[in-house]
């Protein structure tokens, strides 16, 4: 009988337990047979045997019930786990995420300007011809549109080629003074080592009533900003042309690869172009109904900044999702 009690412990599931119970107390069970034999006994012997059997039965049932409860609980848990995702499981080998270099560069620039009280503006990625070109003093058939060929929809809609239309939208919705930046994706029909059909720009615009701001303000803001981004670089302004600014300039920094000595990246010029800027053209103010205002603006390519900061040679690699590149930015 001791063996039968030990068998309870050995059962691995409730099925085995039930079978054991049938084996012991079922119709043809081992102990059932012992109880049946009692009728052939008499007197003290019968009493003695009955006592032993009843005590065994009681003990067996107690141990059986405890084991049954234990196994049942385990089986319910196992059934639940089978279907459910285990949220308590922590995989120490799981890879941790990190910001993409474009996003972290963008965040750094946004952070810089929002701390100086610039507002953060947004515009639609599917833009209309008026905001993307016309209002920025780029009428139809203007040769400067050539550099910004893009993807067109019906009804004069297009994938915006620059973040400059957000200047127009912001001026249409607010009165001066304005201090804004507008980050976002832009699109062009380009593809080579330094151009992808989708890339990111950040636009900056300051407008003041009357002639309160000048090119000197723009220069000093940009020098501060570029030193914040690239460290101790030289900053150079080159006269240029943008239809929406007059005068316009392109801004170069001393080459971060060769420190002005001349290398392949800066094409031996010692300088690298990082953005376009200028004083807002009167025609642009006219197009949004602003009178007696002065302002300055710039537009920069975020990928270009990220490439220079992290010394990434091929712009396209930023969009290939290659883990070997991305893992370096954890
Ligand atoms: N939108 C111009 C481009 O994509 C960049 C630019 C130049 C923006 C001068 C400006 C600016 O705001 O003043 O090429």
| Strand runs, count | 9
In DSSP terms, counting alpha (H) and pi (I) runs of 4 or more, how many helices? 11
Class by SSE composition: alpha+beta
- The portion of residues assigned to helices is 40-55%
CATH class of the largest domain: Alpha Beta
Q: What's the pLDDT, averaged over the residues?
A: 93
- The fraction of residues assigned to DSSP E strands is 15-25%
Global shape? rod-shaped
Give the bound compounds.
3,4-dihydroxyphenylalanine
List the domain count as a whole number. 2
CATH topology name of the largest domain, in short, is: BirA Bifunctional Protein, domain 2
Roughly how many Å apart are the termini? 66 Å
Low-pLDDT residue intervals, each spanning 5 or more residues: none
**CATH architecture classification name of the largest domain:** 2-Layer Sandwich
Most strands sheet: 7 strands, mixed
In short:
This protein is 40% helix and 20% strand. With 330 residues, the protein is α+β, with helices and mostly antiparallel strands. A hairpin with a 2-residue loop joins β6 and β7.
How would you characterize this protein structure?
Its EC number is 6.1.1.20. It catalyses: tRNA(Phe) + L-phenylalanine + ATP = L-phenylalanyl-tRNA(Phe) + AMP + diphosphate + H(+). This protein is an alpha+beta fold and 330 residues long. It folds into two domains: 2-84; 101-329, 2-Layer Sandwich (BirA Bifunctional Protein, domain 2). The chain is 40% helix and 20% strand. The protein contains eleven helices and nine strands. A seven-stranded mixed β-sheet has the order 1-4-5-9-8-7-6, sandwiched between helices. It has a two-stranded antiparallel sheet with strand order 2-3. The mean pLDDT is 93. The structure holds 3,4-dihydroxyphenylalanine. Residues 162, 164, 203, 242, 245, 276-278, 297-299 line the site of 3,4-dihydroxyphenylalanine (DAH).
């Amino acid at each position: 009988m001791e063996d039968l009690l030990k068998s309870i412990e050995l059962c691995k599931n409730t099925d085995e337990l039930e079978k054991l119970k049938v084996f012991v107390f079922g119709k043809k069970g081992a102990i059932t047979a012992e109880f049946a034999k009692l009728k052939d006994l008499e007197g003290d012997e019968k009493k003695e045997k009955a006592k032993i059997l009843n005590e065994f039965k009681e003990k067996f049932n107690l141990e059986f019930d405890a084991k049954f409860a234990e196994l049942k609980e385990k089986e319910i848990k196992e059934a639940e786990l089978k279907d459910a995702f285990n949220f308590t499981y922590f995989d120490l080998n799981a890879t941790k995420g990190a910001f993409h270099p474009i996003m972290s560069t963008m965040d750094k620039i946004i952070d810089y300007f929002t701390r100086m009280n610039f507002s953060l503006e947004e515009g639609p990625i599917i833009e209309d011809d008026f905001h993307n070109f016309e209002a920025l003093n780029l009428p139809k058939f203007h040769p400067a549109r050539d550099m910004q060929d893009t993807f067109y929809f019906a009804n004069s809609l297009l994938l915006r080629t620059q973040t400059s239309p957000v200047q127009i939208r912001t001026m249409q919705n607010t009165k001066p003074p304005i201090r804004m930046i507008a980050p976002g994706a832009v699109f062009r029909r380009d593809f080579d080592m330094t151009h992808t059909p989708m890339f990111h720009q950040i636009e900056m615009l300051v407008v003041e009533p009357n002639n309160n701001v000048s090119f000197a303000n723009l220069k000093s803001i940009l020098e501060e900003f570029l030193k914040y981004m690239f460290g101790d670089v030289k900053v150079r302004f080159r006269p240029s042309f943008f239809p929406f600014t007059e005068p316009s300039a392109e801004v170069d920094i001393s080459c971060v690869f060769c420190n002005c000595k001349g290398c392949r990246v800066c094409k031996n010029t010692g300088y690298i172009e990082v953005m376009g800027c200028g004083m807002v053209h009167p025609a642009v103010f006219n197009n949004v109904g602003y009178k007696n205002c002065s302002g300055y603006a710039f537009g920069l390519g975020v990928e270009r900044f990220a490439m220079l900061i992290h010394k990434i040679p091929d712009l396209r690699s930023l969009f290939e999702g290659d883990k070997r590149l991305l893992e370096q930015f954890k």
